[in-house]
Amino acid sequence: MFEVRFHGRGGQGAVVASRVLANAFVREGKFGSAFPMFGFERRGVPVTAYGRYDDKPILEKTQIYEPHCLIVLDPSQSKTPGVYEGLRKGGVLILNSPKELTAKPHENLAVAGLANADKIAMEEIGMAAPNICMLGVLAAATGWIRLESILAGLEDYFEGKKLEGNRRCAERGFKETNIVRF
Questions:
Q1: 62-106 pLDDT, tens per residue?
Q2: Domain boundaries, the chain
Q3: Residue 50 in contact with residue 37, Cβ under 8 Å?
Q4: Which one of 15, 84, 149, 157 counts the least CB within 10 Å of its CB?
Q5: Which residues of 132-171 are buried (b: 16+ CB within 10 A; e: fewer)?
Q6: Is domain 2-181 in CATH 3.40.50.150, yes or no?
Q7: Cα(23)–Cα(51) distance, rounded to whole angstroms?
């Protein structure tokens, strides 16, 4: 089993991203579990969501304290020490950022996938919701999930123009990923 912790702010889609990713794993014949943790529910406040993915059924429903991967939707949170808390050795960072990584942000980090997901989302869906774009970045940086599974899973969450726009976000995230290996 591998575990992913999503960090974002209300309105960026961390919870939806965790659910879409779980859906994509199920489409590949695996198991996925996704759940949020909320403080105050309002736009702009920190939000954490969790996902577990495995080849066998997932029974654990607790928070994730030692993630294999961090998906950071809000670039300002990447400088917060608590975001990296518990990251496992050989960990992966998927970061929404218009900038390059100039230093390794955590000693356990092995791979980082970066894309300017806010820019991509603004261009494709007209709002700074980087969540689906970051799933494309995850697929490109790790190979844990196929982009096609993410795209197929979007149909359960979006329709019409939102579906098409989010498909383009995931595709561009996949294509425009900057992968850094440490």
A1: 889 999 999 999 998 888 878 999 999 999 999 999 999 989 999
A2: 2-181
A3: yes
A4: 157
A5: bbbbbbbbbbbebbebebbbebbeebbeeeeeebbbbbbb
A6: no
A7: 11
Q: Band of the pLDDT at 41, cuts 50, 70, 90?
A: low
For residue 93, give the nearest of 74, 114, 119, 79 by alpha carbon.
114
Q: How far apart are CA 94 and CA 41, in angstroms?
A: 24
Residues 6+ apart with CB under 8 A from 53: 1, 2, 3, 4, 21, 22, 25, 30, 31, 32, 33, 144, 145
For the chain, the 3-state helix, strand and coil shares in percent, each to the nearest 5, are 40, 25, 35
